[in-house]
Fold this sequence. Notes:
Helices cover 49% and strands 13% of the residues. By secondary structure, it is α+β, with helices and mostly antiparallel strands.
Amino acid sequence: MDDVDRVLEQTIDALLDQRRPGASICPSEAARTVDPDGWRDLMPAARSAAGRLAATGAVEVTQSGAVVDVATARGPVRVRRPG
C-alpha cells in the first residue's frame, strides 16, 4: 500500500465522519478531495480503499442499498458506516 492508498482510506473515513449517521459517500468524493483535477485516475484506488476498509468492518460498500463486494460490483457504489 502506498501513500495515496492511505490518504484515500483516511479521506473516506473523514468524509463519513462529517456525515450524519446512516449517510453514504461515493468513492469519487474521496478521489476528488485527494486530487480535484486528476480524480478520475484515482477511482480504481478509491474503490480499492473502500474495499480494504470494508474488509476490516469499518465501512460497508453498497449498490442499490444492498451490501456488495466492491471487487466484483459493476457500476457505481456507495460507502457507509455499518449499522
